[in-house]
Write the C-alpha cells for this entry.
Amino acid sequence: MVTTVYVALVGLIGLAVLALMAPAAVNEVRLGVVRRRGVRTSARCVAVLPPRTRKGRTRHVLEFTGPAGEQVTRGDLRVPPATLVGDGLTLAHRPERPDVVAVVPPGLGLRTALRAARTGLLYLLVVLLVVAGAMAFGIELVRTAVSGDIDPDTLP
C-alpha cells in the first residue's frame, strides 16, 4: 500500500512537470512551423529597451510592413540578444493569422530544426530519468522500511 502511494505520488509529480513543460513545447512547435512555412517579410530594429525587471531580458522594438501593406511596430517578439538598433531581421507569419509573427534566425534549415527537436527530446529524457530514479529509490526505501530491516523513525 505504501509503495503504491509513493509510486502514484512521484508519478503525479512527473506528470505535473511534463504538464508545465507542455505549453512551452507547443508554443515552440507552433512558432517553428511559422518560421519554416510562413510568409517572409523584412523588419528593422528601431529601438532597444531596457528590461522591465532586474532579471528580465532586453526588449527590441521592430518595425515591418504588415500583410495588408500597413506599417507595424512590435516589441514583444523574441529577438537574438546581439541585435542592435538599425539591424535588419527576417520575420515570418502565417497567411491566415498575420498576428502570429516569429523572428527567423539566420541559417534556419533542417539542421536547425533537428537540433531543436533533439534538445527537446533530451529534456524529456532527463525528466523521465529523474522521475524513474526517484521512483526506484523510493520504492526500495519503502520496501526496506516495511520489511522491518530498518527503523522507520530513522528515515529522512
